[in-house]
Write a structure and sequence with these properties.
The chain is of the alpha/beta class. The protein has one domain: Amidase signature (AS) enzymes (Alpha-Beta Complex), CATH 3.90.1300.10. 30% of the residues lie in helices and 12% in strands. Strand 2, helix 4 (100-107) and strand 3 (111-116) form a beta-alpha-beta unit. Helix 2 packs antiparallel against helix 3 and helix 5 (150-157) packs parallel to helix 6 (174-180). The two termini are 22 Å apart.
């Protein structure tokens, strides 16, 4: 179980492959499936991406997130993958494009491992309102993990991915982070593009990460942030540098 991206980088430096790391996460997801954090695991595409990243590492062309395994809240579009906002209303719907935030993570060679349970259409604060069942808090399974991004928080807390993405309208990242002992960050409105997010309240919604370390939060935020022609509400200035390696 990797606590941080620094630990993954260290493993890669000592000969571990991204494919091996991804398989470790897949195994752990299966072992902890009773937590109901994941609605779907992208096994085939995650392993294919991991192999591509391994090749890039060999060729010294890999991006800043090479080896980072990320889960997506089930309201973020990922091309050719299902997204349902934890509702049966969208059952079977497949995204025809990826959210800008997701595109930027992939461009830096992150591995997207699956989509994470949440309150239906991100409306809730306990993650008991999903059409696919509630998420269990990995620290105490009798307790709720908070919401609406409860699956994203539990995925990090239980070591099912390195970082996850959630969304926050009125506390939906910050509250589950506090319930699960993880670090959650709601960026300033206009910092990260909302293009490709199934909106709850567009004038409040923000995409943000969960992680175990502030350094990982800063790195992922920096990668996702910045101007985007598909979102006119963004700050029209270059992204501030949050983190340097």
């Amino acid at each position: 179980m990797y606590h941080s991206f620094d630990e993954i980088r260290d493993a890669l430096d000592h000969g571990t492959s991204v494919e091996s790391i991804t398989r470790e996460y897949l195994k752990r997801i299966d072992e902890k499936k009773h937590l109901n954090a994941f609605l779907e695991v992208f096994t085939e595409t995650a392993l294919a991406q991991a192999k591509r990243v391994d090749e890039k590492l060999k060729n010294k062309t890999a991006g800043r997130l090479a080896g980072m395994v990320i889960g997506l809240k089930d309201n973020l579009a990922y091309k050719d993958h299902k997204v349902s906002a934890s509702s049966k209303i969208l059952e079977g719907f497949v995204s025809i494009y990826s959210a800008t935030a997701v595109e930027r993570l992939l461009a830096e060679d992150a591995v997207i491992i699956g989509r994470l349970n949440c309150d239906e259409f991100a409306m809730g604060s306990s993650n008991e309102n999903s059409a696919f069942g509630n998420v269990l808090n990995s620290h105490n399974e009798k307790m709720v993990p908070g919401g609406s991004s409860g699956g994203s928080a539990v995925a990090v807390a239980a070591g099912l991915c390195t970082v996850s993405l959630g969304t926050d309208t009125g506390g939906s990242i910050r509250q589950p982070a506090s319930f699960t002992g993880t670090i959650g960050f709601k960026p300033t409105y206009g910092r990260i593009s909302r293009y490709g997010l199934l909106a709850y309240a567009s004038s409040f919604d923000q995409i943000g990460p969960f992680a175990n370390t502030v350094k990982d939060i800063a790195l992922v935020t920096e990668v996702m942030a910045g101007k985007d022609d598909f979102d006119s509400t963004l700050l029209q200035e270059d992204s501030k540098i949050f983190c340097r390696d």
